[in-house]
Each structure stands twice: as C-alpha cells, then as structure tokens.
Amino acid sequence: MRIPAHSVCTAIRDDIVAGVHERGSRLTEELLARRYGVSRVPVREALRTLEAEGFVVTRRHAGACVAEPTEQEGADLLEMRLLLEPLGAARAAQRRTEAHLKVLRGLVRLGQERARRGNSEDLRSLGGWFHETLAQAAGSPAMTSVLTQLRHKIAWMYVVDAPADPVESWAEHGAIVDAVARGDGERARAITALHTERSGAAHRLRLTSGADRPDRVRTSQHPVNVTGLRH
User: Fold this and answer.
1) Buried b (16+ CB within 10 A) or exposed e, 106-128
2) What PROSITE patterns does the annotation carry (predicted)?
C-alpha cells in the first residue's frame, strides 16, 4: 500500500501547528518517514507542499526546516483573514447548498447550547468546523484552500483566548447563517467582518520556543492514519 503524500502532508502540518516540530528545527526525510510509518517518497512530496504553503523552508547546508515566521507575517495573516472571511460569507450566501445550511445550523445549535452551559471545551473545535463549512459553502475551491491555510497558520502562530461572552459570539454565528440562508450577501459580509474583527483581538502571539503551547501533546512516534485508504 502506498500512502498518499497528502495524508503525510496533513500529519506533518498538524504536528508543526501543534509545536511537535519546533520552529527552525530540521526535518529530515529519514526521521519523518520513520515517525509516520511511510517511505521517504511521500515525505519528500509532502515537504515540497509544506514549503509552498510557508510552513517549511529549505536552508543551505541544513535542508528542510520548520519556518520561523515573523510578528509582521502574523499580523499580515490576521489582516488577510479579515478581508477574505467576509468575502467567503458573501459568496456562501449566493452559492450555499441545503446540505451546507443543515450543517451550519446544526453547529450553531450545538455552539449556542455549549455556550449557555459554559462548556468551553467544545467551543473551539465547533467554531473551527463552522468556519470551515462556511468557507466550503462559498463554492470556490481556491478560496476554501486559502482560508484553510490561513486558519492553520494562525493557529500555529497565535494563542486564541476564549471569547469574553461566548453566548454573544455564537449569536453572531447564528446571524451569519440566517443571512446566508436568505441569500443576503451584504449582511453576511458585514456580520462576518464584525465577528472576525472582534475575534482578532483575542489573538496573542506564541513564544517562538513553543514552550507556551498547552496543545502540544503528541511527542511520540506514530503512523499516518490510513483508515479508508485502498490496499
């Protein structure tokens, strides 16, 4: 069985974002292949993709290394998200399917319920699924890809504080879905812009050492998840 390079790419990217591979550290094909239980071929392809995405750089005499983004690059990412997420919401209002609406409404119900109960553990992942689904509803694979990369990089560079009022935050999610369901692109754009601007204030740059990462939990070798792959 040949493991697809995109599966290896996802595994390496996830570990970079989680801080398992620290910024500036070397990424050797042999060690990565052993860690993820694959050959060096998909690792090599994955590193090329991650370099194109900005997570990896190739250095003279060192080879592939985890990138070390600057504070300015982080600020640029937040600004790009502030521009693109409202555009994606406006597009979603015109192009969403009933399946998208069903998922979005279900996530809003869950998010509002968890917010009222004060259960913050699930809210971060629910928020991520919400924005991922909203991006997919825009009906533009290119935009979805860019927004996904932005979310990965922002999660890599920033600690995000929980919203001061999660109930209000999820009310904004609900208002976005209502506008998308009505096909009101301008209102979807405006509410998303406000929501994104407010959430941006909760972002704090991580320490470059990775020592401040509470989510850094995977440190042992593990194979790539190959569930569902063909033999």
Assistant:
1) ebbebbbebbeeeeeeebeebbe
2) HTH_GNTR
Please say if the pLDDT value at position 218 is more than 60: no
Query: d(Cα 221, Cα 16) in Å, to the nearest integer?
Result: 14
pTM for the model stands at 0.79
What one-character DSSP code corresponds to residue 26? B
- Residue 210: per-residue pLDDT: 45
| Structure tokens, 6 | 């995109």
pLDDT of residue 216: 36
How long, in residues, is the chain? 231
DSSP state of 206: P
CA 171 to chain CA centroid, Å, is 22
Domains and CATH numbers, the chain: 3-64 (1.10.10.10), 69-203 (1.20.120.530)
pLDDT of residue 231: 35
Gap between the Cα atoms of 229 and 16, Å rounded: 24
Strand 203-205 with 158-160, pairing: antiparallel
Tens-place pLDDT, residues 202-215: 888 885 544 444 44
Can you tell me the distance from the alpha carbon of 70 to that of 74, in angstroms, rounded to the nearest whole number? 6
In tens, the pLDDT along 100-112 reads 999 999 999 999 9
